[in-house]
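Here is an idea for our session: we take a single protein and study its fold together. To get us started, please write out a protein record for me. Once you have written the record down, we can walk along the chain together.
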Amino acid sequence: MIVTPTPFDLNLMQHAPGAVRGVGLHMSDIYGALYKELEPKRYDRLQTGTLAESENKAGFMGIGMAFEDMLEKALRDRLTEGSGRPDELTESEYGIIYNPDLVIFNGSTRVGEIKLTWMSSKGFPREQANGFPPKADKYLTQMMAYCRCLETPYARLYACFVNGSGSFKDQFGPSLMAWDITFTSRELEENWRTLISYAKQKRML
């Protein structure tokens, strides 16, 4: 047997929706910087320094975006007509650009977000609950920002946990979960004030 490594340079991000971004301040610039400051050990681990680190970051992002594209297409025929990934949207007051993975129409407008993650699903609700574990805070910050811009309290989170619960005793291996979420107007406004205050503090605005 002769095994020879062969060049394989498929860029998973190249054709993924959202890979090409418009010029301007994006919502992800704000909440991304905020969480790097709040949880540097977690969100700085994929900072690009060496070539290997750059490739590592591109790999994680590419696989995540490819999964989003795949699930979005799989859901398209199951969602209400008109639902799907919108073009880039612009928030009216500050001109911040944002791009939800999905906008779902079914009697009301619902923001949809798709996540592929290596973190454990442990702690994520399996039945109706009043919240998520703290490790989901960045997801919620993102969705609340989009909900506030689209003037809806409703969201849906799809998450694929590559390692499942992380426990052989419970459930190990990929699992796909989804939740419908209803935010309060207070949660949306407090989240928005936090993001805008941070953006102004950092002179993004």
In short: The longest helix spans residues 51-76.
